[in-house]
Design goal:
Helix content: 25-40%
Low-confidence stretches: none
Order of helices and strands: EHEHEEEHHHHHHHEEEEEEEHHH
Bound molecules: flavin-adenine dinucleotide, iron/sulfur cluster
CATH superfamily of one domain: CO dehydrogenase flavoprotein, C-terminal domain
Distance between the termini: 55 Å
Number of strands: 12
Shape: globular
CATH class of one domain: Alpha Beta
Strand content: 15-25%
Largest sheet: 5 strands, antiparallel
Radius of gyration: 19 Å
């Protein structure tokens, strides 16, 4: 067994100080321990933040913004009455993720920072993987690519960002507050995850000693007519083959506001602004929903076995928009 040091910091600043010397934060542990058991993550030091009250503040009642401490548990937010009523896309993205036991443990901060489920990444040493071992190659290029990204991939890596929540949060322009040795700063959530480019091992714009303190979601009338639709190989306890987070605001039959993001298809949570532009100001009907679906997957590149997920993505967006329309 590999030895590691376990530390409980006194407060958030202490956690930053300890993290500056290396290590990994521990929230619910449902991703971190998993990857440690697979020997993908090998931290010499684990910094347990679960008792830090600054990261727990959670208030969904505000007039201007919803505030989720990074340690808010997925199951608590999924079951929050205001979120279910006013931001169903957020609640549904959480209900459709993982299992109830995992959601009871897992935090929103940890969920945003979960790593890819690419088989070759998780398979460990027998497989070349630029994300795990920069410069070693990518076993997925010649391997099974049914589940690889069709949007945002590079020659170095085509791993899908697997989380559900991020897509639902970026349609509402969520922001995250982080703290590190350089002080506090805000990052639009849409800018947290990076496309792989030549450096797939650098997955986010967070610095190594930065901690997510909270996630903030500006309140918006678009929330009520929103949904998160997830298509997968089986109906529960599976990652998305394609998913869509959408929201609509209508004036009669005319679209006043539209938000669209894709999950399960891209190397990062994927806001589909071309689809939004196509909808706004247009009469909403099935043809408009279909056209928006096609716009959302514009530029997608099929692999040998992943091409079917482009059409699936377009249909998922169209179906999600029809559901959202019924909620306006
Ligand atoms: P941890 O495992 O504690 O941490 C995850 C990572 O985030 C670590 O690198 C940790 O250092 C870092 N971290 C944690 N908190 C912070 C913070 N505040 N600031 C900076 N870094 C931090 N997810 C989905 O979205 N959809 C699914 O369908 C789904 N299915 C799953 C099925 C299985 C079998 C499993 C094991 C997981 C599944 N997940 C799914 C992923 C699950 O949602 C994540 O494991 C979970 O959300 C991670 O949260 P955590 O609090 O346990 O994070
Ligand atoms: Fe690694 Fe990315 Fe290739 Fe998967 S797709 S094997 S994560 S480099």
């Amino acid at each position: 067994m590999r030895q590691f040091e376990y530390i409980r910091p006194a407060d958030v600043n202490d956690a930053v100080r300890i993290l500056s010397g290396g290590g990994k934060l521990l929230a619910g542990g449902t991703t971190l321990y998993d990857l440690m058991k697979l020997r993908i993550e090998r931290p010499a030091r684990i910094v347990d933040i679960n008792h830090l009250s600054d990261l727990k503040h959670y208030d969904s009642s505000g007039d201007h913004e919803l505030v989720f401490g990074a340690l808010a548990r997925m199951s608590d937010v999924a079951a929050d009455r205001r979120i279910i009523r006013d931001y169903p896309a957020i609640s549904e993205s959480l209900w459709r993720a993982a299992s109830q036991q995992l959601r009871n443990m897992a935090s929103l901060g940890g969920n945003l920072l979960q790593r890819t489920r690419c088989h070759y990444f998780r398979g460990g040493d027998p497989y070349a993987c630029n994300k795990r071992d920069p410069g070693s190659g990518c076993a997925a290029i010649e391997g099974l690519d049914r589940g690889q990204a069709v949007l945002g991939a590079s020659r170095a890596c085509s791993a899908v960002y697997p989380g559900d929540l991020a897509a639902a949060l970026i349609i509402f322009d969520a922001e995250i507050d982080v703290i590190g040795s350089g002080g506090e700063r805000m990052i639009p959530l849409e800018e947290l995850h990076r496309e792989p480019g030549d450096t797939p091992h650098i997955e986010t714009t967070l610095k190594p000693d930065e901690i997510i303190v909270r996630i903030r979601v500006p309140t918006t009338p678009l929330g009520r007519a929103s949904t998160y639709l997830k298509v997968r190989d089986r109906e529960s306890y599976a990652f998305a083959l394609a998913s869509a987070a959408v929201a609509l605001q209508m004036d009669g039959d005319i679209v006043l506001g539209a938000r669209v993001a894709l999950g399960g298809l891209a190397t990062r949570p994927w806001r589909a602004r071309a689809a939004e532009r196509l909808l706004i100001g247009r009469r909403f009907d099935e043809a408009a929903a279909r056209a928006a679906g096609e716009a959302a997957v514009e530029g997608a590149k099929p692999g040998r076995s992943s091409g079917f997920r482009i059409e699936l993505g377009a249909r998922t967006v169209a179906d999600a928009l029809m559901i959202a329309r019924q909620r306006t």
